Each structure stands twice: as C-alpha cells, then as structure tokens.
Amino acid sequence: VIRLGSNLAPDGTAMFKVQYVREAPNGVPVEADPDSIRVEVRRPDGVRMVANYPEAEGDGGLVAITRLWTGNYAVQVYLGTHTGRWRMKVITNDGYGPTEEVEFQVAPAT
Asked: What does the CA dihedral 78, 83, 84, 87 come to, rounded to 10 degrees?
C-alpha cells in the first residue's frame, strides 16, 4: 500500500510524502522499505520528469526522492512557473509492488 500526502513549499516546490506499508505475517500493516521507488511526473506542457530511489542514471534535478525513515519518503517536485494539471505516478519494486497515481492542479498566483 502506498499512502500519499502533500503540501506546497514557499519556493514553488510541491512536497509529497510517500508511505510504504506491507502486511506482516499476522495481518498487521507495518511500514517497510520497498526495493525501489520510481516517480514519474508529467508537467502540463507534456514534459516528463523522472526520479528513482535509489538514484539512477538519467534522474533529473527537478524531481527528487529522499528516504526519511523506514517506509517513509519525501518526493519534491519543482513546479517553476508551469500552471495547469500535473500528473504523478509512484511505482514501487519495478512495477511488481503497489503503484499510486495522483493529479494536481497548479493555478497562477493572484
């Protein structure tokens, strides 16, 4: 299971919390680290940005994944001046684990 939470940092960076939970043998959910996390972000202009944990060749600086503690990660997405509908997909364990997708709207500053 992946749980997402979000907020907006003052520098125009969207911050997402990714919580990864596995079911223990006794059926109780516990926070655990996946083998890998891949975050794919599509900006409103169609540009695709990718980040991996652990970091992989080709990862850009506009999306970053940081491990906070067991099963908990921070994903930072730099928004710049791009307004409109954004899409983000979180993929675990090379697609063999849970996947979560979210869309969010960025409106111009008033």
From this structure: -10
CA pair distance 59, 34, nearest whole angstrom = 19
pLDDT tens-place values along the chain, 110 residues long: 566 666 666 568 888 989 998 888 999 999 999 999 999 999 999 999 999 999 887 777 899 999 999 999 999 999 988 889 999 999 999 888 889 998 988 887 76
Closest by CA to 60, choosing from 73, 45, 47, is 47
Please give the sequence-ordered ranges of beta strands (E in DSSP) within the chain, or none if there are none: 2-8, 13-23, 29-31, 37-42, 48-53, 63-69, 72-78, 84-92, 99-106
CB 29 within 8 A of CB 37: no
Q: pTM higher than 0.70 for the full model?
A: yes
Q: Are 58 and 7 in contact (CB under 8 A)?
A: no
DSSP letter at 70? T
Instruction: Return the C-alpha torsion angle 90, 91, 93, 95, nearest 10.
Output: 170
